[in-house]
Amino acid sequence: MASPGALIRALRRITLRSGRSWQQVLKTLALLLRRLLGNPQVAELIRFIFLGTIVETGRVVGAKMVSTVNSFFLVKASFKKGELSYEWVSAYIDHHKVWNRSRTFRVVARNAEKMANRDLAISAVDGYPDAVYEPSDSEPELFHWRGRHWITISKDEKEGASSLTLQVWSRNRTVLDEFVQEARTFYRTSPQPPPKQAFDWSESLIVGHFNQADFSYDWVLDYLQSENVMADANEFTISTKQSDAGWNREDGKQLVRYVPSTNTKQRLRWRGHWLQVEFVIGYEDGNGRTSGGSINVLLHSCEKAVLSEFIEAARVHYTHASISRVTVHLTDNYGSWARAVTKNRRAFATLILPAGVKELLLADAQEFLASEEWYTFAGVPHRRGYLLYGEPGTGKSSTIHALAGELGLEIYFISLAAPGIDDYTLGRLIRDTPSRCILLIEDIDCAFPSREEDDDEPLLDAKGNPIPKELTPPLSQVTLAGLLNVLDSVASEEGRLTFATTNHIEQLDPALIRPGRMDLKIQYGLATSEQLEQMFARFYPYDDAADAEHGPSIGCYFSASGARLSAVELAALARAFAAAIPPARYSIAQLQGYLLSRKNEPEGALAGVAAWVVAQEEERREMEALKQKRRREAALRRVAEAAAEREGQTVREAASEREGQTEREGETAEEPSAKAEEA
Ligand SMILES: Nc1ncnc2c1ncn2[C@@H]1O[C@H](COP(=O)(O)OP(=O)(O)OP(=O)(O)O)[C@@H](O)[C@H]1O
């Protein structure tokens, strides 16, 4: 703004230039202004500007006053989707049917049965999805809460993100506090399942990840199945594999199972808490086993104690359920424990072994497990090794499985020749097993083959040609030193029973089977007469209570004449059966194969056994001849190789001899000329 001095100076300059006095200039300006104001359009414009200024000032002052009043009487809170608090308020206002008066909806197709507020659905109960009204970005709704408080609720959806805004008409925050608290309690105790969470709520809720490589995975899987957690699921994978976890388990005869689709979220109410369970599928290794999977359990709680309680419940359930089963843990191709398989427990009584063997083994293992304190006291490592050796099919593996069932222990099975198992992974696998279990190393000799056997039976390629030894892959990456190390390690001292089986004890390094590593060695032989008789009696028992009306059944067999065979007659047949077979010539597995073909005919089994023996002997001769032939071929091959090697050597020697001679002749030819040069 120009100062009065400057104005006077400007007027003076104008008067000087125009040659008029400044009063005359002022007069002219006043005249000009009057003429302008006299123009109605200019006057209208000036009035408009004046009025606009007044209205704008009024609006700003009014808004300021409203916000000041609001801040006195309105409490505002917003809830963003993805936050647990959004779910509380959302579920609570759904329950109070706040949106029922809404006039803007999004119509979707859902199962109305699963809705909290059925008023927003046109329920048809015809097995087809219902039309459901979902409040969309709508006008605010007034909620008269508890009949005392007015709450304005609005739903906003911007760029895919939803939020709820609450405005509580109140002087202070107390009403909002009460509202949020009530919504929270309602949500927590509601029988309505919470919506499936796709958000990371690990900051507000407890999330437990159970990895397939860990044993807790099996506990949780088993437990969740027993709780039928997946009953509420909408997405299934249909499986005909009876080993798959899923619905229809109760009825073992069902052909298909509904397996929860992987990466879907299932909900379950557990001891007053909601759980969300997600099954994450692993990847399948070359052997058809899966690994790398997990079960993620999201607990609607933030107390770690609830998770511990859940895990403990799963563990107890698993242990209890496995009383009638034996669990065998297997390794994957990467040297980790993969998912376990369970087998029905085999009764110890079904083992047919020479008198006293079963009792000795069971008593020894029981005594070992019961005397942990003594081992600590005596400073002796609390571990025990058993070596079961002998002919194939004589019951070594069966004994270990039956013993595991009897002692209530799980089996951790390691094959030293399996891919991915080396000294390092072997040590890790053993460290990862729990204390008090059976560690089973089957066919321990396969890992360290003897040299002679190698020479006798070379590996053949697809065309039947022998594979050169340097190209033959080693049977195991585990070294003897590595295995001994692991057997002696502290990890093996946790009350573990180590069982090793072999068909060739003579091929084992004495260091491997010395006491301290293998404390009890039991030989399994081919069936003795006594065992043969017992076996016959096991296949054809006599049961007085069995109903003879419906033909042969367990404990009830008939003779060729149609009369029921008595206990005495069956015993006589058993003796005759044993007498018809040369003792210590066949394994129980071989005889089992024969008897299985005559399940209900004890007399037929006896009648056919002589022919079976003849056929077995014939087969044995053929096998022996084949073996001899391969040995001869291997020997001839070695002779031929040696001859070729010798011939090659002779040729090389002759060539080098010729070379030497040529050189010598060259030297003698050069000599005279050299002498001539000298002269
Ligand atoms: N002593 C036995 N008592 C009862 N059943 C037996 C006995 N021996 C073998 N069998 C039966 O024969 C089959 C094979 O037995 P098992 O696998 O235990 O033999 P193995 O000695 O471990 O053989 P391999 O050395 O080849 O592993 C099983 O079905 C088992 O029921």
UniProtKB/TrEMBL annotation:
InterPro entries: AAA+_ATPase, AAA_lid_BCS1, ATPase_AAA_core, ATPase_AAA_CS, BCS1_N, Mitochondrial_chaperone_BCS1, P-loop_NTPase. Pfam families: AAA, AAA_lid_BCS1, BCS1_N. One of its GO terms (molecular function) is ATP binding. Residues 49-351 form the BCS1 N-terminal domain. It comes from Mycena belliarum. Residues 640-679 are annotated as: Disordered. PROSITE patterns: AAA. GO terms for cellular component: mitochondrial inner membrane. Residues 382-528 form the AAA+ ATPase domain. It is a single-pass membrane protein. Belongs to the AAA ATPase family. BCS1 subfamily. It is found in: Mitochondrion inner membrane. It catalyses: ATP + H2O = ADP + phosphate + H(+). This is P-loop containing nucleoside triphosphate hydrolase protein. Keywords: ATP-binding, Hydrolase, Membrane, Mitochondrion, Mitochondrion inner membrane, Nucleotide-binding, Transmembrane, Transmembrane helix. Its main location: mitochondrion.
